[in-house]
Amino acid sequence: MKKISKETENRKFEHIKVCLNEDIGFKKKTTGFEEVELLHHALPELNFEHIDLKTKIFGREFDYPILINSLTGGHQESIKINRTLAQMAAEFNIPMELGSQRAALENEKLIETYRVAREISDKVFLIGNIGGAQLINTYGIAEIEKCIEMIDANAFAIHLNPLQEVLQKEGDLNYLGLLEKIKEIKKQLKIPLIIKETGNGLEQEDLQALKSIGIEYVDVGGAGGTSWAAIESFRSTKDSILANIAQSFKEWGIPTVVTTILAKSMGFKVISSGGIRSGIDIAKAIACGAELTGLAHPFLKHAYSENREALRAQLKMLTRELKTAMFLTKSSNITALKSAKKIFFGKIRQWLEFYQLYK
Ligand SMILES: Cc1cc2nc3c(=O)[nH]c(=O)nc-3n(C[C@H](O)[C@H](O)[C@H](O)COP(=O)(O)O)c2cc1C
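Above are the sequence and the flavin mononucleotide SMILES. Below is the predicted complex in structure-token form.
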């Protein structure tokens, strides 16, 4: 097994520093939520206080359809971040996904940077994580089982990040045979398996391929939120070829709205993520077919400074906005919100017409 733990550990912290200090969002491309309008009702015929935000997925009931998406692990600074986020996940009864556990597979001294989340509560729903690219040559089911055991994971996610791998000088560039590898893992895994993108979206053919091997859960990780090309452009030496290519690919990918609708149309249980920033975005994502919505970057700043009050306020704001959108769309619960009336405008409509999904 490759022993490159120091490099992995440093890279993890560099990503956090860049995300805390630089502007790493998409600039021109958007998620598409601004081109989805939920129809307003002046006669909701509901009592606001009775609106139910609970959702069921992975055989569990959560109080809100929000996932604290994968952010970190593998660096000493990750301990406080993961501890704080796990406290929020426990308090709000929402799921949390850990960062890639590769660093702990390379160096077991780093296990604590992930396990700290489980130490918060044995009830919190935790999702383990590893990169697909690392499964080709290095890891298999034995290492995934180690990752699961490390945090007593309730579900496991394999992330696909081909663009980011290409932009890293230490990136894993071989994706050949990954589908077959995922198929083998899926067969042997006893907990739910999620396949996720990290900000460039899952295309129809990718989704078809995942469907053909029996994948049920996808986190579409669409374009419009955190741009990994932007992050890597800050990490590369200025004016290097990689830095320039990272600049060129900053706006690459399938908008979150489009990839969410595609995945839903193919029968997946969908986690919508990539640029979800408000309770209205959450409502729109659910009306587009998501079961759950994931946010990563928005939680980083306050988790890093262990500002639990600010995180609580952020989650309260998101859930109150969502509830307001549900009131105004006559949606008494999450199931009702899934069929809320909506209109698509502009580019999103064009994308949907291309996939013959515009009705
Ligand atoms: C600092 C940072 C580290 C991340 N690390 C991982 C990771 O290890 N594994 C993973 O699957 N996704 C990782 N992600 C991706 C997020 O989970 C998410 O897919 C992406 O940031 C898009 O969501 P957002 O726009 O809400 O940030 C990371 C994101 C950030 C900002």
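The CA atoms of residues 1 and 138 lie 6 Å apart.
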